[in-house]
Amino acid sequence: MTEQTAPVSLEEFNHRLAEISEAMPKRLRQCAEFVAQNTDRIAVSTVAELSAGAGVQPSAFMRFCQLLGFSGFSEMQKMFRETYAQKWPDYATRLENLRASGADSPSALLAEFVEAGRLSLENLASSIDAGLLEEAVNVLAAAPMIHIVGFRRAFPVASYLSYAFEKMDIPAVLHDGVGKLNPRHAIRKGDVMIAITFAPYSQETIDLAAYARGLGNPVVAITDTMTSPLRRIDALTLAVSEVDVGAFRALSATLSLAISLAVAIGAKRDQAVQ
Question: Transmembrane region positions (predicted)?
Fold first, then answer.
């Protein structure tokens, strides 16, 4: 891999990361995956903190920055700070008053999760690819059957979509793995799959999505990073990231995306029958 000029925007950075991450050595790929999942931390963390989070030495993290085209970590951090400066919360100090009541009190935790949800929603609104979203709606609205898969943290999103489609009389199958049953043979040519998974990624979801793509069927992916394995199967990818509170990540932005997707599909199908 040759050295490149530094990205000047978050969009350019994400494109570069997706472009070269597959060919990276193991340690640098760890850096790529950690950065892709934690873009909100780059502007405010030290290289020591980020390398520890990625499980690599600071020297490996520095090499990762250089591979992306930056002179070092400072230049990469500068780009992130300039990008996020415009979105920095105006009223964060209001929440600080609540947090001050106790680091782990219920009201402080609520304030933390509310703030994390707000930041996640703002990031979704500013980063979602409107063209991809519309394409996903068009593909799903035309599907004779929608198959939905999502396990562990993604399961609430998958089950909500199944519920919403059922209420709108949209044919859909939720692949939930109950009883260790594997209804993959219910997937027919022309059906469309919605696959939902987040790092560290569910192998069951990846396998089922790959099976659907092997049949030539479209897959709409709701996932979190530029290095998500669902991108490798040429899925129509809707990227969403959640700001964490400690080690916990809520689903504020992801559920908002799912609700929007379901309602838009229902409206599109209604238009088609009028």
Answer: none
Four-residue CA torsion sign, 178, 179, 185, 186: negative
Model confidence over 52-61: pLDDT tens digits?
A: 888 999 899 9
- Joined together, the tokens standing for residue 186 give 């219910």
* Domain range for 208: 129-273
Indicate which CATH number applies to the domain containing 220: 3.40.50.10490
Which strand (E) or helix (H) includes residue 194? strand 192-196
User: Of 30, 61, 86, which marks where a domain is finished?
Assistant: 86
Cα separation, 262 vs 271, whole angstroms: 14
Pairing of strands 248-249, 244-245: antiparallel
Which tokens is 204 given? Answer: 């069951």
Q: What is the CATH number of the domain that holds 81?
A: 1.10.10.10
**CA–CA dist 152, 34 (Å, integer):** 20
Residue 206 CB neighbours (<10 A): 19
- Taking alpha carbons only, the member of 59, 56, 61, 67 closest to residue 22 is 67
Calculate ∠ Cα 82-69-232, nearest 5°. Answer: 95
Instruction: Read off the tokens for 196.
Output: 């939902």
Q: Is residue 83 within 8 Å of residue 9, measured between CB atoms? A: yes
Tell me: the pLDDT tens digits for 209-254?
999 999 999 999 998 866 678 888 888 989 888 877 766 778 889 9
Q: CB count, 10 Å around CB of 273?
A: 5
Report residue 43 as tokens: 């502007």
The pair of three-digit structure tokens given for residue 264, joined into one six-digit string: 């838009």
DSSP 3-state of 148: strand
**What's the rounded Cα separation, in Å, for the pair 44 and 7?**
19
Distance CA 48, CA 25 (A): 20
